[in-house]
Predict the 3D structure of the following.
Amino acid sequence: MTRAVVVGATGQIGRAAVDALARDGWEVTAVSRGGDRDARWPGEVRVARADREDDAALSAAVGEGCDVLVDVVAYGEGHARQLVSLAGRVGSAVVISSVSVYEDDEGRNFDTQTEPGGFPRYPVPVTEAQRTIRPGDASYSTRKAALERELLAAGDRLPVTLLRAGAIHGPYCRMPRELYFVKRNLDGRHRRVLAYGGASRFHPASVRNIAELIRLAALRPGTRVLNAVDPDAPTVAEIAAAIDTVMGVESEDVPMDGPPVDGVGDTPWSTPAPVVCDMSAAREQLGHRPVARYADTVAETVAFIEQRLAGRDWREAYPKMFAAYGDLFDYAAEDAWAERR
């Protein structure tokens, strides 16, 4: 039996990763700030309490050593150096990064998307060879790029697989994009305006498929960067239809030519250009085969959101979502727009 340590074990990716590794025969230690246990994990999973920022606590969780350390919450140079410092006791690492590190050939990236004409125009699909944003401390994306740079530079001491995840979905997400359509359906809003004709594509990534990639990378240590997304990249309209099917409702789409107007028509997936990633490298290097398509897993996401919303204002249930997107449900503005058409 080989030992795995999963840092960030009670987050949405961590829960799935612990489960996948344990069921594959690994001796797993699940590390989180609360030291909690998921009831669905196999009973032999061990738990440990440690704050990701506490070097001593993380070192103690690793103990005398492990074959693989999975880190789903690492950002920036500091976390990278912390992981590299454990190289003598850790055989290899699997670390979650993001597709937001990519920039297009004109230097546009997720950090420039709010500027006029600033949304990146990536190749379709994007491969791991695409250029990336300059590392730094300024944003989520630059910190992920800095994390990647430091870990790849130390690959001779600590073999690391970096997984660039897309639009992550699944239970326990604190910012579920699916909330946009779930709440509309719960509110009886079965007529929805979709910017860009509802054709936007922002590649989703199921926690199940990410966990499978983690499992495979743990079995095949090496220093590499891989995209981590679902086998399909549905449009906004297709995502909405999949959620309708799960919830047993019928809705009318009102396609809007071009961008949102005063927020009307905007969704968490709405982009003026597609963000679609290639998974060939994962197939070639890890023998990866996806375990689920988007429509196969959306039901559990919807169920989790409905449970969390029960009897609560959505801003209380998902404060990070509100902070990031603002008022996603300005129905008055939408009705006013419809009257002006």
